[in-house]
Specification:
It contains no helices and 6 strands. By secondary structure, it is an all-beta fold. The chain has a domain of about 35 residues.
Amino acid sequence: MAGEMYCGWKINEDSRLSLDPSPMGRIKFNVAGVVVNEIATCGGVLRDDNRVVSA
């Protein structure tokens, strides 16, 4: 299982997840959402190939 990729995430030897960087010159948009008691929210982050966050 270690070393396998899932939707841009890599599983390390110690079973921790790490984000796979974007291809050179591209931006990756990671999003997450949750619904609790019929209330929904979401958020996201833009990262470049150097893992620099853009707002």
